[in-house]
UniProtKB/TrEMBL annotation:
PANTHER family to which the protein is assigned, alphabetical: BLR5716 PROTEIN, DUF427 DOMAIN PROTEIN (AFU_ORTHOLOGUE AFUA_3G02220)
Entry-linked Pfam families: NTP_transf_9
Signal peptide: none
Residue ranges occupied by any DUF427 domain in the UniProt entry: 15-105
InterPro entries listed in its UniProt record: DUF427 (IPR007361), DUF427_sf (IPR038694)
Full protein name: DUF427 domain-containing protein
Length: 113
């Protein structure tokens, strides 16, 4: 793993709200801290209402984590394009985030409750 990436269990219970609806809640989330960036909460896929998420055509590559694929959230007020991402096959050093999703906090609310 890159020395500047740290993954640990996120403390407490976390929720994701999109368009006023709770689309996920977990007490099994992970916190990924990468260098000076704000830590990102990764939610287990089993704790997300995946019926609201549709895979998009968007992808990106991180030299430390691997290839990310993105999801659009279908909400009451319309789609939130590429609001979530997942590393389906992350690099060995960050394998814990496989099967997890992260969300852009500029698009949805990610809150500890």
């Amino acid at each position: 793993m890159a020395d500047h990436i740290k993954i640990r269990p996120a403390t407490g219970t976390w929720v994701i709200r999109a368009g006023g609806a709770v689309i996920g809640e977990s007490d099994r989330a992970l916190e990924l801290a990468e260098g000076d960036y704000t830590p990102v909460i990764y939610f287990p896929r089993d704790d997300i209402a995946m019926a609201f998420l549709e895979p998009s055509e968007t992808s990106s590559t991180c030299p430390h984590k691997g290839e990310a694929r993105y999801f659009t959230i279908q909400g009451k007020s319309g789609p939130l394009k590429d609001a979530a991402w997942s590393y389906e096959s992350p690099k060995d050093g960050v394998a814990e985030i496989a099967g997890h999703l992260a969300f852009y906090t500029s698009t949805v609310a990610v809150e500890q409750v």
